[in-house]
Amino acid sequence: MRERSGQRQSPKPFQELNLEDANLAGLDLGCAPQSGEPCTDLVAADLGRATLTDVDLTGADLRLANLGGASLIDADLASANLRGAYLNGTNLHGTDLTSADLTGADLAGVCFTYKTRWPIDFQPPASPTCPPSS
């Protein structure tokens, strides 16, 4: 993945990849989607408990991906497709979800703050479920 990181115009096909517990902090996997195709394809990928802090996934296709328990602190998921994604227990502190598609996403137990940017007209969970600071 690090080899493809930063290549803004090249496709990044990672569908169904198992990245559970992986540390992908700081990777640039985003781009401006061209011709309607996503630049990063993580459909049904397992990113459970992965460290995705400061990752750029702008326009990524994360349909049906497992992001349960992942750390997406300050990540950029603007315009990402998260339809049906599992985000239970994910840390979304400062995450940019502007224009993201969260249709059918499981957001139970997500942690977020006032810095989290949600899509316009999206109703986030009633209250964040954040572990106490130590």
Describe what is shown at a glance.
The chain is low in regular secondary structure and 134 residues long. It is built from no helices and two strands.
Description:
With 134 residues, this protein is low in regular secondary structure. It has a single domain, classed as E3 ubiquitin-protein ligase SopA (Pectate Lyase C-like), CATH 2.160.20. It is built from no helices and 2 strands. It has strands spanning 12-13, 40-41. The protein has a two-stranded parallel sheet with strand order 1-2. It is globular, with a radius of gyration of 13 Å. The termini are far apart. The mean pLDDT is 83.
Defining traits:
single chain, 134 residues, little secondary structure, Pectate Lyase C-like, two-stranded parallel ribbon, 0% helix
Query: Helical percent range?
Result: under 10%
| Unreliable sequence segments | none
CATH second-level architecture: 3 Solenoid
Beta fraction of the residues? under 5%
Whole-angstrom Rg: 13 Å
CATH domain class = Mainly Beta
Count of helix runs: 0
Structural class: little secondary structure
The dominant shape is: globular
Element order: H for helix, E for strand: EE
Biggest beta-sheet profile? 2 strands, parallel
